């Protein structure tokens, strides 16, 4: 009997020891897994923190060296070329939005807060931007300093020709490769469009702009950037001499008497959308001197809505379709 009891005690003791060993192994395994997961979380957190804190060095157009976020997530842009940012999928949270939104912005401005014009600092502050791009730094020299108290602020020149402007955006936002691909695509589309027109060598065009009672001749900016592009129309000598070759001049007020001097083989007439401008444009197009122009006699006059007086990237995507439409209607 004693032997039997002794054997049972030994058996139970062995069983208990086995349970303790298994429990210890399980505990060690769980601790190891938990520690591994915790280490992974810490590593991921460290990587995200490093990404959010990474910056790039940038020299502004005013010669200042600044550090800017490598991947900004909340950009405020103060300027009129918001279409560039939209076309490049840049996360803009605030802009001085246009009052009369052009058709090419339809559905594209949702979620962007209007910061007003002039820009309201309190509104910008509530948006918590990590980068501000200021296209009005020349108009208000003090604005840049005030904006810099909110977030890193870059002075920017939106009046540059679109190729230079977009390349500069690529430098600011570290998107040089994306910009190069985008400009290459535009160059291809422009070439294909103008090849269909079968222009003769030296065939010219002029862009006029009717604003109220004042008539302007435009240079190679805005719509002119497409008209006079590498693959486009030739520039009339008077436009070249009096506008394009003059530093700081992108358009020129003209009287009807000098129209023959500036008019090319094709005439694009941009009309501001208000009653005075439209009435004055109608008068111009019916005037005797207008009727003497060779382009008018040949039916090569194209009246263009004011919203297309731009060279922002979002508009340019559609201009390669619009331009042939205008010309086919004549």
Automatic annotation (TrEMBL):
Biased-composition ranges, Basic and acidic residues, are 34-51
Leader sequence residues: 1-29
Give the residue ranges for region: Disordered: 29-54
- Organism, by scientific name, is Lysinibacillus capsici
Is Signal there in the keyword field? yes
Q: Which family does it belong to?
A: Belongs to the bacterial solute-binding protein 8 family.
Record keywords, A-Z: Signal, Transport
Look up keyword Transport and say if it applies.
Answer: yes
- Domain Fe/B12 periplasmic-binding span(s) in chain numbering: 74-330
Q: Quote the InterPro entries the UniProt record gives.
A: ABC_transptr_periplasmic_BD (IPR002491), Bact_iron-sidero_bind (IPR051313)
Task: Report the subcellular localization.
Answer: Cell membrane
The protein here is known as ABC transporter substrate-binding protein
Where is it chiefly localized? membrane
Topology relative to the lipid bilayer, per the entry, is: Lipid-anchor
């Amino acid at each position: 009997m004693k032997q039997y009891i002794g054997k049972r005690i030994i058996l139970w003791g062995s069983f208990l020891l086995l349970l303790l060993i298994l429990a210890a192994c399980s505990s060690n395994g769980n601790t190891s897994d938990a520690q591994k997961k915790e280490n992974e979380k810490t590593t991921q957190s460290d990587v995200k923190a490093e990404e959010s804190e990474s910056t790039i060095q940038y020299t502004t157009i005013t010669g200042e060296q600044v550090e800017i976020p490598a991947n900004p997530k909340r950009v405020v842009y103060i300027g009129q070329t918001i279409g560039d940012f939209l076309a490049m999928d840049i996360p803009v949270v605030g802009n001085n939005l246009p009052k009369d939104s052009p058709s090419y912005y339809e559905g594209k401005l949702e979620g962007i807060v209007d910061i007003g014009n002039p820009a309201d600092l309190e509104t910008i502050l509530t948006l918590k931007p990590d980068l501000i791009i200021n296209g009005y730094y020349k108009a208000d020299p003090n604005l840049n300093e005030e904006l810099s108290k909110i977030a890193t602020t870059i002075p920017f020149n939106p009046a540059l020709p679109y190729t230079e402007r977009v390349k500069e955006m690529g430098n600011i936002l570290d998107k040089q490769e994306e910009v190069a691909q985008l400009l290459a695509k535009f160059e291809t589309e422009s070439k294909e469009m103008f090849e269909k027109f079968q222009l003769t060598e030296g065939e010219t065009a002029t862009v006029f702009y009717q604003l109220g009672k004042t008539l302007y001749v435009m240079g190679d900016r805005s719509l002119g950037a497409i008209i006079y592009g590498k693959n486009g129309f030739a520039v009339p000598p008077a436009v070249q001499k009096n506008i394009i070759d003059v530093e700081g001049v992108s358009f020129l007020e003209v009287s009807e008497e000098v129209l023959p001097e500036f008019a090319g083989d094709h005439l694009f007439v941009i009309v501001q959308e208000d009653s005075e401008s439209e009435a004055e444009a109608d008068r111009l197009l019916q005037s005797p001197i207008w009727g003497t122009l060779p382009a008018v006699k040949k039916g090569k006059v194209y009246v263009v809505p004011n919203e297309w007086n731009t060279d922002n990237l979002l508009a340019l995507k559609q201009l390669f379709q619009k331009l042939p439409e205008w010309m086919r209607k004549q």
